[in-house]
Amino acid sequence: MLREDQIITLLESLHEHKMAKDIFVQTLKAKGLKGVRFTGGPDEIGIDLEYYTLSEPDNEKQYHGIQFKMGDLKYGSGGGKNTVKEVKNQAEEAFAKEIHDLDGRSKHFISRCIIAITGDFNENARKMVGKARNRGESVNITFWRGEKLAEMIQENWMDGFEKYFKDQIKNLPKEKEEDVDENIVNAEYIESNYPELIEKCQKVRSTISGYEWGMLTTLTKLSGAQDSSVELGDFLFEFEASEENLRQEFETLIRAGHIDFDDGTLGLSGHAMKLDELYSTIFGELDEAEEDLAKIDDLFDKCIG
User: Would you say the pTM of this structure is higher than 0.70?
Assistant: First the structure.
């Protein structure tokens, strides 16, 4: 299978509209999303793709728009190309525009705008988005980074993607041979020395859905990095979702006693604190062995995966 960086290289060889129409219409359909269609082109309404979900419990259609951007997103107070201010302005314009259904007899507005970039955010852009979320702004604007786009393709439309780029794939640099892990603290070391702790983490996993588990592990990493509870806006930014779309999952995790939500901050609680204990244990082992602390998230994922 192609690596994430190889997928992103191939995506960036296309024009944004062609990438949306040829690649992500197929990918999102394969993912099972409803009403996926290309809306870019000369009459673009601020978004390149749209799809809809059904609200609970009344099954009303809620439309989501996706705007694709090549490269990284940066901070820029002047609102230049590929800045947070530019895409925020474009998203707000998209919210205000009417979209006509394919039958031409009905119209609607999008309720959520997704900004999908093939790159990442620079640090200032990350801080700006996080602050806006903490203030309750831009809650209906979600950001997808390049790694998420690549993962989506890998999980839903890899065969089609490889057929589409079959000629270009031949010219991609060959994969480097994986280096032998000579570090003392690796997944095997943690698993053999802390089996009971890992088992308790897995028991937490068995009580919730895979999506909710992803929320807990993301919260664990953020709280571990900050050594404190996590601002809701920071969590939503890192998890790449809006509060509204996670409302049901938050309620489930709170009822199960896995998280606390107080005054706009999130924290692990109850049995889920075992995740924090494992994360702290890995940090302590890496620090004691004087090994690279930057690999803690990857090692944590391998131990609970």
Answer: no
- The whole-angstrom separation of Cα 29 and Cα 56 is 22
Q: Which of 133, 168, 203 is the last residue of a domain?
A: 168
Q: Are residues 141 and 203 in the same domain?
A: no
What's the number of CA atoms in the CB half-sphere (13 Å) around residue 184?
11
Cα angle for residues 252, 130, 38 (degrees, 5° grid): 80
Write down which residue in 110, 139, 168 finishes a domain.
Answer: 168
Q: 189 is written with which tokens?
A: 């070391």
Confidence of residue 92 (pLDDT cuts 50, 70, 90): confident
Phi then psi for 261, rounded to 5 degrees?
Answer: -125, 115
Residues 9 and 155 both lie in one domain: yes
Distance CA 138, CA 232 (A): 13
pLDDT band at 122 (very low <50, low <70, confident <90, very high): low
For 218, other C-beta atoms within 10 Å of its C-beta total 17
pLDDT in tens, 134-173: 555 555 788 899 999 999 999 999 999 999 999 999 888 7
CATH at 132: 3.40.1350
Mean pLDDT of 238-260: 91
